Amino acid sequence: MNKKLFNNLLLFSVFGIALGFFGMLYEGVVSIPKMLDVSMGRMLFWQGYYAVINPALYYIPLTPLATVNVVLLYFMAPKENLLLRKRLGLAGILQIIVLAITFYIVTQINLKLCYSDIEKYEEIIPGKVLLVNILSVVRLVLDAVALTFVFKGYVQTQKE
């Protein structure tokens, strides 16, 4: 693979991971902490909110594509460039963990709390809301570290 294509694909990964990061940052600062008030009225409000505002654009398709791209670039990076390979490898692993946490949040928490019969899950809402707050912080930190690795890798390739 030529160097220009490699750099452009790396830049795409920086953009895709950054888009996911800022989506998670918005959720983690604005939306999710406000869900700690688990009254039925508040939960019905959030159901209405998510019926209009769909956060999927921050996660699909660019963030998963950027993650796949980072993993592929890890294997395509020159074997003698150990620092770049290490950065891309760690970023790929962290991004896979972030996507797994996001998948869990969406399928096991958000679909139940925001897109289904909320009264059916009334008893588990407080625990799920607390869990989503904790997982949100974890994935935000992991995504920030992965973004840092990919960005440093991009800067490194620009200097070479």
Would you write up a description of this structure?
The chain is an all-alpha fold. Helix content is about 80%, strand content about 0%. The longest helix has about 35 residues, at about 125-160.
Question: Secondary-structure blueprint of this entry?
Answer:
Elements lengths: L2 H29 L8 H13 L9 H15 L5 H33 L10 H35 L1
How many structural domains in the coordinates? 1
Structural class designation: mainly alpha
Helical percentage: over 70%
What is Rg?
Answer: 18 Å
Shape verdict: elongated
The H/E string reads HHHHH
Strand coverage percent: under 5%
Mean pLDDT: 90
Number of helices: 5
Low-confidence stretches: none
Per DSSP E runs of 2 or more residues, the count of β-strands stands at 0
Question: For the report, how would you describe the main beta sheet?
Answer: none
Distance between the termini: 15 Å
In short:
With 160 residues, the protein is mostly helical. Helices cover 78% and strands 0% of the residues. The longest helix is centred in the last third of the chain and has 35 residues.
